[in-house]
Every structure is written in C-alpha cells, then in structure tokens.
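Journal club side-thread
Mid-discussion, someone asked how the predicted structure for our own chain would compare to the paper's figures. Pasting it here so we can look after the session.
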Amino acid sequence: MKTLHFISKSNIWMGIVALFTLSLLLLPLTSSAETVVRTGNSVSIGVSQVVENDFYASAGSVTHSGEIKEDMYVVAGSVTINGPVGTDLTAFGGTVQVNAPIGDDVRVIGGEVVISGEVKGDVFVIGGLLKILSSAKVDGGIYFYGGEAEIEGVVMGSLMGRAESITISGEVGAVDVSVVNLILGDKANVRGDLSYASIRELERAAGAVVEGDILRGTVAVEEGRGNASLIFVLSWIFTTLCVFLVFRSRFGELLGDIKQDTMRIGIIGLAGFFIAPVLSFILLATVLGAWLGIISLLLTMLLFLCAFIILPILLGAYIVSYFVKDRRIDLLSVMLGVFAVIFLSYIPFFGGLIIFLGLILVIGVLLQKLYLVFRTLS
C-alpha cells in the first residue's frame, strides 16, 4: 500500500462554501421572465403539472411531483422530489429527498440528503448525512463534505470529499477522500484507485473489490479544525435561511428603523454590547444576584446569537436598497448578505470592523424593539 501526504487548510473549505453561495446567488439573475417563483408555508407541484422553464421555491416544505423542464432552485425545511427535473437541482434544506430523475447536476446544502433516483450529472453535497440508495445511479461523480455518507447505488464517476464516515456498499469509479472512518462493505466495487487520508485503517469486508491501487495518506493537523469550521458555517447559513422564512415580514421594519436613525441605533447597540455582559458578571459576583446574573448572561448570549443570525438578512437588504429602491427583502438579498459576510471575513481588519459595526446595529435595533414591546405590554 502506497503512502501519500494530503495538505488541508480550513480556509479552503470556507472558500468552497463562499463559491457555492456565490453560484446560487448569480444563477437566478439569468432567469427569464417566464420563470415560475412560489413562496409560502407549503409549496407543491401536482402530478399533472408541467413547468416549462426554471422553478424557484422558498417555503417550509416543498414537494415536486410533476415535471420541471429546466432548473429547480429551492430553499425549504423539507424538500421532496418525486417528479423529474430537466437540468440542475439546487437546494437548501433540512431534509432533501430525490426520488426522480435529474437531467444534470444535483447541488445541495442540507442536514440529510437521500437520493434514490438517477442523476445524469454530478452530485455536490454539503451536509450532515448523504445516502445514495441501491436504486440510485449517478452518471457523474459525487463530491461530499460533511458528516456521514452511505453509498449503496452505482456511481460511474469518482467519490471525492471529506467526511467523518464513509461507507461504500455499491459500485464506484474511484475514491479520493479525507475521512475518519472508511468502510467497504461486501458489495463494494471500486473500479479505479482508492486514495484516502485517515487516522484509521480502511475497514474492508471480505467481498469488497478494489481494482486499482489502495493509497493511504496522512492527515494534516488542521483537519479537525476544517471540519468544525465547515459545520459552523453550514449551520449558520441554514439557521439564517430558516429564520428568514419564518419571520420574513418583520425584517423590512427592522431595516427601516436602522436607516431612519442609524446613529441612535448604533449607540443603543454599543451600550448593549458592552454594558450587558459587564452587568451580568457584576451580578454573578454577588451572593443575592448570582441567579439573576446567570439569567442576564444567558439572555445576553442569546441576543448576540440572534444578531449574528439576522446580520446577513439585514446586510443583504441594505446593500440591495442602494441599487433598487423599495425592493422587498427576498431570498436573493439574503444570499447576497450571506456571501458579503463570508467575503468580509477574509479581509484583514476592515472586514472584521464592518462585520462588528453591522452586529452593533442589529443588536441596537433588536434592543429597541424589545423595549417597545415591553413598554406596550406595561
């Protein structure tokens, strides 16, 4: 068995997420006037329905049982594809099930992705779990970055990526992965080379077949950090999209408050950012105020977390408002905000400063809204 050396950098995977986000952002800009767009709590395409062009959907759940002649783009908590898609499928979702033929590529960011139909192109997945069932066939390759992958179907191309665990129980063209656990089941058939970087030895069943060479590489020290960074970014993007879908009607008002009185909102945000943690720790240091300090500290952390989740929504809408007046906050502006935050994180000092100022404004407008709510209740 040959030994290779694989070099891994966490910012490479952050870049992959940024490029994937940018591709989702740019693709809708080229859609025609006949493109179908649907939003709501639940979106479905009936068995007898045919969409002649691209289809875009944003909802709590999306079910497609008809036919889409061109591309399909969807953001939802649950995505179920029971009807054919003519070209590409691009999806953000908690669970994504593909049970029908896809004419070209499948691109998914999701928690759980299950493919049981035929995919004519490549499969690109960033997520927690990927299952390629025995009934599935992928004419291209599979690129997986995430937690666990189970390959039971036929993959004509290569399996590439990085994961915690990969189990192959079907036919694969070749394998080139960085993984903690790599398992070849009895029905595994790797027609080409199997290259893997892992801290553990390959687990190979007696009936597993590898027609090429088996090449094991060493894992770089930053491997674990890269996985953690990738999972963090994916969780942030997914949570931001879910919050947008649930509270989308509220963000226009928040943005209006920021633009109307930016200075005052900024001062409130600065006060909340610095005073709230200090007050919490002062209470924690006292005997009588310890429990109040714990509650105050938890509420402060929750406020900061909410601000970080909401930041790309308001930032994207703020950017778009300079080019298109009175435009509603939609999926396009949210994705622009996500990409803007990721892009700014790569710029030393000034990028971080802009993100910090944005967080201050979001904290300020949230505190102002909370104050108005409590005043109304009292």
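Post-session note: The first strand starts at residue 2 and ends at 5.
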